[in-house]
Amino acid sequence: MTSEEMVGSKSFFLKVIVLALLSRMLVFMVEGDTHYYDFVLKETNFTRLCSTKSMMTVNDSFPGPVIRIHRGDKVYVNVHNEDDFGVTIHWHGVKQTRNSWSDGPDHITQCKIEPGTNFTYEVIFGNDQEGTLWWHAHSDWTRASVHGAIVVLPAEGTTYPYPEPDGEELIILGSWYVGDLNEMLEEDLSIPNVTTPSSDAYTINGQLGDLVACSGSETIHRWSVDYGKTYLLRIVNAAVNSELFFAISQHNLSIVGTDGTYTKPTVTSYIMIDPGQTIDVLVTANQSPSQYYMAARQFVSYDPTVTDFDNMTATAILQYRGNYTPPDIPSFPTTLPSFHDLDSALRFLPRLRSLASPEHPVNVPIDITTRMYITIEMNVVNFTFEGSEISHIAASLNNISFMDPGFDILLAYYRYSFVHSFSLSLFCFHFVGSTWPDQKKQVASFEIGILLKV
Ligand SMILES: [Cu+2]
């Protein structure tokens, strides 16, 4: 290479670097907006099922405030804890790539936000996330009352992979407990073989509807629509532990998304939604202007002898705008499956398919280099609780259950020597059966792990 060529190639590389920096700046400029929210955790009184209780909320609301952004935006949420006990907030379904510090599970990625203090979360959404997600408390079972929706609209300048809806509505399904759920859980833990408490009723946008005790027309959520218009209904199952069926009388639901991704459109007369799941559906107001029940009820089991569950059906009303005489009683969705309708539950599940279009691809790794064998079990575990020996049912993963270590594991990981001082169960990994995964045997017992090897 001559000196002239060297100068030429140097200026060429300089141009490349400048162009790269400029394009990086341009990318930065179109990366999206930044939003700031303040969440104040505090006790608020609510009256349901004829009784008033105080429970933790965000900004006094149940469900809590909605985070509404466009794809590619960033959100900072400053959580101020004005309540009496420490909690964290988790951004359910938000990928938070390389941003675990803001993920939220207490004693996994952070310590609790103690009363009188605050913590600011930086919530980073994946560029492939669009639709509905949600947030909730991630300490004890406080999420029963501390939760809300996250709406991710298409990025500025883009639109939905279906005709733009005329409007939208959020439907947040929740559980209602007359008592304090965390106290009830604590009590149940001390009783052998008692499972987690059933809720007393289900809620739609915080209301139980008008089929339960001490309810009336003012205790039901109403959604007003215009005849002929199509709406995007964003449904979140924020119930603590139940799969729920949901249907709207005489109106079909066209499923278009779940858990912040688009699905192939499919028309159904009911949905089944798991706890933690979101489902987006299009609803066209194409029936006679009137009032129609929307209803949610639990899917329990195929076994009709199972009767110990929350058998309350939550209701809300879809009402058309305009002049008509409302019915004395709105029509009820006859397509809403019953508590033990396993067939309807199973029929629904395969309907969810990724859209997987060129604009919304699903990049699943195709080259498999490592195979992992993972067992998920519910077993009896023996442990000591307040001085007594207890046998209790608990979940395990690869024969290891989890006990809250009381410190932040992520932080401990970065202080490696600190981890080693707690390394009793650092790597405890065993299967039942001499060869795996060929032998499928009932795993009878497991250990309680407190640490994770990464
Ligand atoms: Cu979650």
- Main pleated-sheet profile: 6 strands, mixed
Strand content: 35-45%
Ligands in the structure?
Answer: copper (II) ion
- How many structural units, i.e. domains? 3
| Computed Rg | 25 Å
Structural class of the secondary elements? mainly beta
* Topology pattern, helix = H, strand = E: HEEEEEEEEEHEEEEEEEEEEHEEEHHE
What does this structure look like?
By secondary structure, the protein is mainly beta. The chain folds into three domains: 34-153, Cupredoxins -  blue copper proteins (Immunoglobulin-like), CATH 2.60.40.420; 167-351, Cupredoxins -  blue copper proteins (Immunoglobulin-like, Sandwich), CATH 2.60.40.420; 376-449, no CATH class. 12% of the residues lie in helices and 35% in strands. The chain has five helices and 23 strands. The protein has a six-stranded mixed beta sheet, with no helix packed on it. It has a five-stranded mixed beta sheet with strand order 11-19-18-13-16, with helices on one face. Strand 14 (253-258) and strand 15 form a beta hairpin. The two termini are 49 Å apart. Residues 1-8, 21-29, 418-444 and 450-454 have low confidence and may be disordered. Bound molecules: copper (II) ion (CU). The site of copper (II) ion has 4 residues, from strand 5. Copper (II) ion (CU) binds at residues 90, 92, 136, 276. Belongs to the multicopper oxidase family. Residues 42-155, 170-323 form the Plastocyanin-like domain. InterPro entries: Cu-oxidase-like_N, Cu-oxidase_2nd, Cu-oxidase_fam, Cupredoxin, CuRO_1_LCC, CuRO_2_LCC.
